[in-house]
Specification:
67 residues; flat
């Protein structure tokens, strides 16, 4: 059922352990950024997945030469 935006809640409930986990993950990501992970392919792949909301799978065909 749809609601008008004015009728919806502006805040969400977050349990303490979820908040602590989110905070720890944020600190870890910031530390990895300081260590230079932004230049690595794995970090770029993660950003691509988050931005586009899908995963690209690239599979090379098997060469018939090696039968």
């Amino acid at each position: 059922m749809a609601r008008l935006k004015s009728q919806s809640e502006q805040y969400i409930t977050l349990h303490q352990h979820d908040y602590q986990r989110m905070l720890e993950n944020t600190i870890m990501v910031e530390a990895l950024k300081m260590a230079g992970i932004e230049d690595m392919p794995i970090y770029k792949a993660m950003l691509h997945i988050l931005e586009n909301e899908h995963v690209d799978v690239h599979i090379e065909p098997v060469s018939r030469r090696y039968r």
